C-alpha cells in the first residue's frame, strides 16, 4: 500500500491558464432561497431594510413576498460552490474583481441556477486573468443576475533547463 499524501487528495489535476478555453462553462449547484437563508443573510449583512424581512411591507411595495438582498443573490455565483476552483486547483491565485446587474427580483422560495462561462483570457508574463460571465436564472428561466468575475491564475512554470 502506498503512502497517503494530502497534497494529492483533490478532485482533479490543476488546470493552468494555458489549459482554459473561452466558452467553457462551469455550473454551480442550484439552491432554493429559503426563509432561513434570508434570515441568515440579514443577520450576516446587518441590512435591516424591511423589504428583506417584512412581508406586509413588501406587498405594499408591489412585491409578492420577501425580496432577496442583491448581495445575497450575487453570492450564489461564488465559484467555490461549483467545480471551477477544483479545476483550477493550486493555479488559482485569487478572485480579483466582480460586478453584477440585477435584472429581476428574487423572492423567498425562488430556486436559482448560477453558472460561470469563460469569456476572456488575458495572458501576462507568469499569470493570466480569466474573465467569466456570471449568470443566474430562476426556476421560470428568467435571468435575474448578469455580471462578471475575474480571477488571477498561474501559468505553467517552464521546465528547468539543465
UniProtKB/TrEMBL annotation:
Stored InterPro entries: HotDog_dom_sf, MaoC-like_dom, MCH/BMMD
Protein's recorded name: Dehydratase
Domain MaoC-like: 23-133
Amino acid at each position: 500500500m502506498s503512502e497517503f499524501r494530502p497534497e494529492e487528495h483533490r478532485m482533479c489535476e490543476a488546470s493552468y491558464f494555458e489549459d482554459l478555453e473561452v466558452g467553457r462553462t462551469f455550473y454551480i449547484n442550484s439552491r432554493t432561497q429559503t426563509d432561513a437563508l434570508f434570515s441568515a443573510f440579514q443577520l450576516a449583512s446587518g441590512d435591516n431594510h424591511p423589504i428583506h424581512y417584512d412581508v406586509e411591507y413588501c406587498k405594499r411595495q408591489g412585491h409578492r413576498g420577501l425580496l432577496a438582498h442583491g448581495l445575497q443573490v450575487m453570492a450564489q455565483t461564488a465559484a467555490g460552490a461549483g467545480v471551477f476552483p477544483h479545476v483550477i486547483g493550486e493555479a488559482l491565485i485569487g478572485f480579483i474583481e466582480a460586478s453584477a446587474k440585477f435584472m429581476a427580483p428574487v423572492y423567498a422560495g425562488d430556486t436559482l441556477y448560477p453558472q460561470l462561462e469563460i469569456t476572456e483570457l488575458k495572458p501576462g508574463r507568469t499569470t493570466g486573468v480569466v474573465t467569466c460571465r456570471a449568470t443566474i436564472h430562476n426556476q421560470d428561466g428568467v435571468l435575474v443576475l448578469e455580471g462578471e468575475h475575474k480571477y488571477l491564475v498561474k501559468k505553467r512554470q517552464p521546465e528547468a533547463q539543465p
